TrEMBL record:
The species this protein was found in: Micromonospora halophytica
Record function comment: Part of cytochrome c oxidase, its function is unknown.
Membrane-spanning intervals of the chain: 7-25, 37-59, 90-109, 115-133
UniProt-listed Pfam families: Cyt_c_ox_IV
Record-given protein name: Cytochrome c oxidase polypeptide 4
GO CC annotation terms, alphabetical: plasma membrane
Species lineage: Bacteria, Bacillati, Actinomycetota, Actinomycetes, Micromonosporales
Keywords (A to Z) from UniProt: Cell membrane, Membrane, Translocase, Transmembrane, Transmembrane helix
Gene Ontology process terms (BP): electron transport chain
Subcellular location: Cell membrane
Length: 142
């Protein structure tokens, strides 16, 4: 995780510098008015990178060093089971369709379609999250 938060720190520092430079440049070029859309977009991009970098920094302090974070780490140290991935789930497709429905509602500014899409997104996300806790795929451990 050490590598990840450093990457986000570098990108965030660049975006903060670009935000300041862009704001000053547009202020001087247009005679005293800042072009707010680009400045806010760059600022929000910086904040997103800072949020992701802060999360990775927070997590990296609480877990052991991974092989890719150690200078003496070998490729074979990272071998083995990575995690559990569902072999055949239809919930990601439903989640994508629900997000597309909500996106169409937002694009066409139809609040009823946006609301239906958001409810469908919540339903599909819950279905994906609880897939192995209910129904026929329920395991005996849970």
């Amino acid at each position: 995780m050490k590598t990840e938060w450093r990457i986000f720190l570098i990108i965030g520092a660049f975006l903060l510098g670009a935000t300041i430079l862009y704001g000053v440049w547009t202020w001087g070029d247009s005679g005293g008015q800042v072009e707010w859309i680009g400045t806010v977009a760059l600022l929000l991009s910086f904040l997103l990178c800072a949020m992701c970098g802060g999360f990775f920094w927070f997590v990296s302090r609480r877990i052991d060093l991974r092989p890719e974070d150690r200078p003496d780490g070998e490729i074979a140290d990272g071998a083995g089971e990575v995690g559990f991935f569902s072999p055949g789930s239809y919930w990601p497709l439903g989640l994508a369709l629900a997000a597309a429905l909500a996106g169409l509602g937002l694009a066409y500014w139809q609040f009823w379609l946006l609301g239906a899409g958001l409810v469908a997104v919540i339903f599909a996300a819950c279905g994906l999250l609880f897939e192995y806790y209910t129904g026929t795929r329920r395991t005996a451990e849970h």
